[in-house]
Amino acid sequence: MTRLGWFFRDASGRLVVVQLPNTALVVWLAATVLRWSAYDSRDTELRWIGAGALIVWALDELVRGASPFRRLLGAVVLAWQLANVF
Q1: 64 lies in some domain
Q2: Helix residue ranges per DSSP H, 1-86
Q3: Out of 7, 26, 44, 61, which residue is the most buried by the measure of CB atoms under 10 Å away?
């Protein structure tokens, strides 16, 4: 294991960067795609839905993230979303 390998591994030593399925990220992706599409006439609602989904995902990763990388990523995304929402 490399010096920084621990940063991307869980307590059992498995490499944990992505976990599927991830409902909150699917909701965010769907809201983002719909916002970009010509079909979208509710930009504001989809923006709030997407932001809410990312906040839920970030809180989940911050609290239950399997590796230090995922907990840090959750903290960064949460700070970014809160700065953009308020």
Answers
A1: yes
A2: 23-36, 43-64, 68-85
A3: 61
